[in-house]
Design brief:
The complex is a heterodimer of chains A (116) and B (112). Chain A is 0% helix and 44% strand. By secondary structure, chain A is mainly β. In chain A, strands 1-9-8-3-4 form a 5-stranded mixed beta sheet, with no helix packed on it. A 4-stranded antiparallel beta sheet of chain A has the order 2-7-6-5, with no helix packed on it. Chain A is globular. Chain B is built from no helices and 11 strands. Chain B is globular and about 35 Å long. The chains are: A mainly beta (116), B mainly beta (112). Chains A and B meet through strand 4 of A and strand 4, strand 5 and strand 10 of B.
Chain lengths: 116, 112
């Protein structure tokens, strides 16, 4: 899986938007961009994923740069329950038969702190 | 539909004992993955199993660790002769295919 770079930590105030950046300059054409988050004492939770176009779901939006070398996870109105570690992960679902297809490669992620 | 169930949530073992961690995947999911998270570190892949088969164990330590996913029953991660360095959170995830993941809440192993 290609490498991603995220800031170690970010802070936000409750009810304000949060933009979490991720750089992936070595992304390949078939890599999907996935975001997971891990709340304290919980397992990771799927947030959103995309390939080229921006994506929206009930949890967040994903903005993907035109050259796909970076992306931004957008939480439109942060709540205290959004405080977590956010992971940006690249996955190629069509690998050439290698063993990478089954696993996620987690980096250090971004620790998001939300202030009341 | 219950999520991925892991038990126990917390497990304390003395050095040299065996630890057995269980993971019941979501209904209909035949793919199971185990990850380990050491204190203050990120999650690391350990092993990927389908029913009765180990597909990828490239992240498993060479000794003392084993995993199985029998035809019936939960997946088991077994750690023999535990040492303090095995203290970590162990997470299981399941999926109906290679791609979608649902994680359990983890088992926190403490070796004393």
């Amino acid at each position: 899986d290609a490498k991603t770079t995220q800031p170690n930590s970010m802070e936000s105030n409750e009810e304000e938007p949060v933009h979490l950046p991720c750089n992936h300059s070595t992304i390949s054409g078939t890599d999907y961009i996935h975001w997971y988050r891990q709340l304290p004492s919980q397992g990771p939770e799927y947030v959103i994923h995309g390939l080229t176009s921006n994506v929206n779901n009930r949890m967040a939006s994903l903005a993907i740069a035109e050259d796909r070398k970076s992306s931004t996870l957008i939480l439109h109105r942060a709540t205290l329950r959004d405080a977590a570690v956010y992971y940006c992960i690249l996955r190629d679902p069509h690998d050439a038969g290698g063993t990478s297809y089954g696993k996620l490669t987690f980096g250090q992620g971004t620790i998001l702190t939300v202030h009341p | 539909n219950a999520g991925v169930m892991q038990n126990p949530r917390h497990l304390v073992r003395r050095r040299g004992q065996e630890a057995r961690l269980r993971c019941s995947p979501m209904k209909g999911h035949s793919h199971v993955y185990w990850y380990r998270q050491l204190p203050e570190e990120g999650l690391k892949f350990m092993v990927y199993l389908q029913k009765e088969n180990i597909i990828d164990e490239s992240g498993m330590p060479k000794e003392r660790f084993s995993a199985e996913f029998p035809k019936e029953g939960p997946s088991i991660l077994r750690i023999q002769q535990v040492v303090r360095g095995d203290s970590a959170a162990y997470f299981c995830a399941s999926s109906p295919d290679r791609y979608g993941y649902t994680f359990g809440s983890g088992t926190r192993l403490t070796v004393v």
